[in-house]
Amino acid sequence: MGVTETTVYNQFLKQTHVSQEPLEATFIVTFDSSYSAGGEAWDANAKSGATTVTEVIAVPQGATLGGMVVQYDYTNKKLIAYVEEAVAAGGPLVEASGDLSTLLCRVTVKGLRT
Question: Taking Cα atoms as reference points, which of 99, 63, 101, 58 lies closest to residue 80?
Fold first, then answer.
């Protein structure tokens, strides 16, 4: 099924003219119960309306899983979830798998509309 998102704020939609001023959009992204290896498709350009994305910041919220990190893959346009292999021991990050339906992530897209 993939991720779903709710728009919190989107300056790209409010900007009616081309500008070199940086803009941003913020979304709450909810993962689903069948996380795909390699990440979930999420196109920051298409979601925000930016012609050039300069930065994507993903901050997990509300996850029951400890040690969760979410990273944006700019090349493949995907959100990739990682979890510490052994949280108590400070283990290495490995890609998450399975049911991530409790994972909410605040994603901020920064960029330009040129």
Answer: 58
The residues that bridge with 55 in the sheet, in sequence order, are: 110
Phi, psi of 15 (to 5 degrees): -80, 115
Residue 42: closest CA among 7, 71, 78: 78
Alpha-carbon span 12 to 15, nearest angstrom: 5
Q: Which structural domain range is residue 95 located in? A: 4-113
Predicted TM-score of the model (pTM): 0.86
For position 17, which CATH number holds? 2.60.40
Query: Which pLDDT value is given to residue 9?
Result: 92
- For 40-52, what is each residue's pLDDT tens digit? 999 999 999 888 9
| Residue in the block written with tokens 């003219």 | 17
- Number of domains, the chain: 1
For residues 63 and 44, what is the distance between their CA atoms, to the nearest angstrom? 22
Is 65's pLDDT higher than 80? no
Say which residues have a Cβ less than 8 Å from residue 14's Cβ, sequence separation at least 6.
Answer: none
